[in-house]
Amino acid sequence: MQADKAKFAAHFESNTNPQLMDKQVISCLIIGSGPAGYTAAIYASRAGLNPVLYTGPEPGGQLMITNDVENFPGYPDGIMGPQMMEDLRKQSERFGADIRSGMVTSVDFSSSPLKVTVDEEKTFEAATIIISTGASAKWLGIESESRLNGKGVSACAVCDGFFFRGQDVIIVGAGDTACEEATYLSKLCRKVTMLVRRGEMRASTIMQNRVLSTANIEVLWNTETLEILGEDGVEGARVKNIKTGEEQTIVATGFFVAIGHQPNTRIFNGVIDMDENGYILTDKVSTRTNVAGVFACGDAQDHIYRQAITAAGTGCMAALDAERYLASIEH
Ligand code: NDP
Question: Which of 101, 154, 174, 182 could join 196 in a cystine, given CB atoms 3.0 to 4.6 angstroms apart?
Answer without folding.
Answer: 174
